[in-house]
Here is the input.
Amino acid sequence: MTDQPTQPIKKRTFSGIQPTGNLHIGNYLGALKNWVDEQEKYDNIFCIVDLHAITVPQDPQELYRHVREVAMLYLACGISLEHCAVFVQSHISAHSELAWLLNCVTPMGWLERMTQFKDKSAKQESVGTGLFDYPVLMAADIILYDAHYVPVGEDQKQHVELTRDIVLRFNNLYGETFVVPEVLIPKAGARVMGLDDPTSKMSKSSDKVGHSLRLLDPPNVLKKSIMRATTDSLNNVAFDRENQPGVTNLLGIYQAITRRSEEDILNEFTGKGYGHLKKTVAEAVIATLEPIQQRYYDMAKDPATIDQILKENADRIRPIAEHRLLAAQQNLGLRK
Ligand code: TYM
Here is the structure.
């Protein structure tokens, strides 16, 4: 492997979120909270993946507003620019360029197996090639920066496994070029379910009332959604995803926020009704999100500063990406 110009002392993490609006507590507990909690351990790069967002139709008037919103939420949640770079995917053209090179070594059959493609394409009238190719761009994102770890929610595990397969194939065919990354999935909060239907994943794209807890929902809306959450008639507080998915989802949210053990949490709620559980979870969610919202609205007063941060961070890390892209081009025989 060619030497890095800026080889970090700490191991590197890379992750990203799509700027498709309405970030929710699943994005926070499955990804963002863990990025913040672990940021001092690693050298981190966090991306706003606008090129992934356009794999399904987006309103061009809204897209950049959502990019800025995600950047401000990263910072409001506690991402520190001392430990992390925060940038926009389309601002570094090496992502698109490497994705093309990886396309040429990725068998279609590997992409046909991706469950997220199957789910998402079933919801679209016309499916763009970009949606099919989405995991290859995601692989490019990760390996351009020699990331060792990819902290994500459970739904992205298959994509990171595919990234590993693509790297192994490329390195095998053209010589050691890329680091093989590992997925990091949190113990609690890796798969937050919809409050209205705890058998399906909480999703940004659902606009059903009471489905998700959005990071920018006011406290009364958060409380109402939790108090109305679907549970069951067993009147028994237990972690049992199969038979009590609604109660288990609320307990999981509480566990991910408090970082307490299952046993400790059950001790707190055993013998108490679902009303008490919901009220306690609502208080914990509101206490977590209120300070984030305050920081977000403060930052939103000065969008020029956010734009400047995104530009400076992209300028700082672009050489890392260009260096790895050049190594891939050389190994493929495209460059001397
Ligand atoms: P996206 O934007 O769908 O989700 C962002 C992050 O939130 C996690 N997540 C959840 N975690 C728990 N429960 C949920 N209900 C839930 N919904 C979403 C996701 O697992 C993710 O960590 N393909 C990625 C973006 C991406 C990326 C990358 C990630 C592009 N390139 C490179 C890592 C590395 C995505 O669509 O995330």
